[in-house]
Amino acid sequence: MRSISFFTTGKVGLLTSVCLVALSATSLAHAQSAAEPEEESDVIIVTATKRETTLQSIPVAVSVTSADTINQAQVRDLNDLQTLVPSLRVNTNQTSSNATFIIRGFGNGANNAGIEPSVAIFIDGVYRSRAAAGIGDLPNVQRVEVLRGPQSTLFGKNASAGVISIITREPKFEYGGSAEVSYGNFNALVAKADITGPIGDIAAGALAFGINKRDGFVRNLAINKKINDRDRYFVRGDLLINPIDELKVRAIVDYDHLNELCCAVANVKDGFTGDYIRAIGGKIASNNRFGDKVYSDIAPINKISNQGASLQIDYDFGLWQFTSISALRQSKNFSDGDIDFTSAALASAYNDFKIDTLTQEFRLASDYDGPLNFLLGGYYFNEKIDQKQGVVYQKDFRAYTNALTGGATSALALIERALGLPVGTTFQKQGTGTSETMGMKNDATSIFGTIDYHLTESLTLTAGFNYTDDIKKARINIVSTDSFSALDLNAFGAGYLTNLLTPLIGPVNANAVAVKVAGVRCPAEQPKGLPICNPFLGLSVLQFQPPFLNIPNAVESGKTHDSKTTYSFRLAWEINDTFNAYASYATGFKASSFNLSRDSRPFAADFIPGNPILNPPPSKIRSAGLALINLNTGTRYAGPEEATVSEIGLKARFPDGAFNLTLFDQKIDGFQSNIFVGTGFQLANAGSQSSKGVELDATYRPITPLTLTFATTYLDPKYDSFKQSAFGDLSGVKPAGIAKLTLNASASYVVTLGNDQSLTFRTDVYYQDKTQILDGLEGSRAAAIPYTNEINTWNGGIIYSLNNGWELTAWGRNLNNDRYLTTIFPSVAQADSVSGYPSQPRTFGVSAKYNW
């Protein structure tokens, strides 16, 4: 695999290309010598114009990974793709569907259904709006393209950080197919097959199906189950109708299903609360990041199904080419599991959502002989999200609070007595907590286009635009059955202190003192004399499921309406047969995203928290009579992202190799930061986040059998402005989770054995330098600074190709067993403890494939 930055001498269709013909591993790994004839595998077919050209013609920073490379590297899904593309990073955390795709340090949307990702995923031109709809195995892949930077004029659906475009093979008008089976450690079994052939004179069809199973590599000692397993299958039908040369119709139907126990959470830091867990009989695999042993009283269930149908129509009018892509899709996702990640039964969370999506794209491209050509397109997106989720207490939570607070003599017991409740009642009922129903409707339309003008034979100027109009309507209904979280500890403390002090100083003075100190937390040791603090405020840490204000309401409409025109300019120069160069400037846009989580709270502009006894200032919500006890502020949604990128690219091709160099300066104003805080998400706009960098890839073929590749990305990321982050003012700080340096290198050596048989030896390495994992913990950036990760993985394989269609492979991924944490978070209801998600260990196996 190699990353490729393309340059243009072609017409507008080259700038809006969404399809490439199959690229062999050899064509991606090295440039052909001048003496060799140019093969079909070294040609790009542009679907908008049906024009062929060489790989040097597209002025877009893009990495292309072929089917052969994916097969040789044993890449099973998009999560593994990052080891082949340095500018791409993929994180999978809370659930199997919780994948975040990051390009050049920009990406978001994990596990919050209200957020469309900044990195858009397309499969055969159809937009997959959430990661859960695109993480399945990769059937019949022809290639995967990773386009870097904002994409608006190339795709109707605006993407502020980049695009991952997967193109599958079309059905063929001759019989053929393949069957493959693979077996590896952890009892990994992958089996898949496909068949293609003609259906009459004008149609061809293809059918593909497969399974992917593996035992878990983490042992849950509490319930004696292995987790982090694989259990997936897919089926896909593809029909191509070509009644006349000018018309081509392609219909695709697909279904995939996942049912896995994912994802294991390791104890990264066992804080002082760990002793209280053990005091009630709970167990923790303390400070054991990569021991692959955990204690959790509930298995982490994940069930995902995706299904859809698409129809693409291409018609060639001669001077114009018309394309229509229509799609209906549905994605269902259910997860349920422990959230304290100990063997004590403290709390669990479930999430059940369904997403229905309708998309329609039209494109009309010209094919004139003159210097000017154009493309004009329209795009419509309609989506409906229905979600049910909740957090519920389990049977041991009361025992845990007793241990924390001191049992029958605690402030908690004192509250219960004052309320006339039997001591031990609070948190006793299993299943209480919050239950939530949420949803969102999204309608978006866009018009986009490009004009391509040849200033000279070697110099081409391109201008493009995209106008997007986006409307979202959200509803959030949260019901809390946690009576303790609904208690007003300020008012309770004031009443308690008033009664306590009245016999000593009289009711008037007692009330004055009580009101004065009602909002003051007590220090570790209470001074002698009159009380100067509220002894109950320390219990507020147990009020993490308070009543929430639902939307829409009289103050908050639950609606956003965004519109924006984005544009791009590009100048491409074919210097000579060896060198091409381009310079470009582009803008991108992503509309507002709603926080569809239990941490959705009113904006500070609409509400000022506080108890009436403390006389808080007036606010819109309080004036409307909507204020709730313990209601706090946060965000309902994050405003739009607006991206800009400047790029300069140089591409060179020599008889024995090639290199591509891209320098870029990319910035997103209003980047939608989505921070997981244990039970929900804090969604906020960073004022501005930028990333300057260099991307370099090179190939060299010193001798005919040997191909060497090298690709690297260097980033200088920064929060230019982020004053209102969950961890204070981060302006001027390097964002966590973004490595400055990533690189991969590969070597492929082919030994010809005669009789059209061969042995291919392939190895590749992936490196990511040390970086801070998370921006902050428990409201503090400093608390997260000690936690870093560094990635060094080595993959390899040997492929024996026979002349009768068989291909035998021995393969290994992460052969050096490099382990790291993908992310961390503050342990739920366990102050001073930290949890995290460990990476996969070494995997290896053998496979046999037959092609006919």
From TrEMBL:
Signal peptide extent: 1-31
Main localization category: membrane
Domain TonB-dependent receptor-like beta-barrel: 278-815
Entry keyword set: Cell outer membrane, Ion transport, Iron, Iron transport, Membrane, Receptor, Signal, TonB box, Transmembrane, Transmembrane beta strand, Transport
Location(s) in or outside the cell: Cell outer membrane
Matching Pfam families: Plug, TonB_dep_Rec_b-barrel
TonB-dependent receptor plug domain ranges (all copies): 55-163
InterPro entries given in the database record: Beta-barrel_TonB, Beta-barrel_TonB_sf, Plug_dom, TonB-dep_rcpt-like
UniProt membrane topology term: Multi-pass membrane protein
Family named by the database record: Belongs to the TonB-dependent receptor family.
Protein's name in the database: TonB-dependent receptor
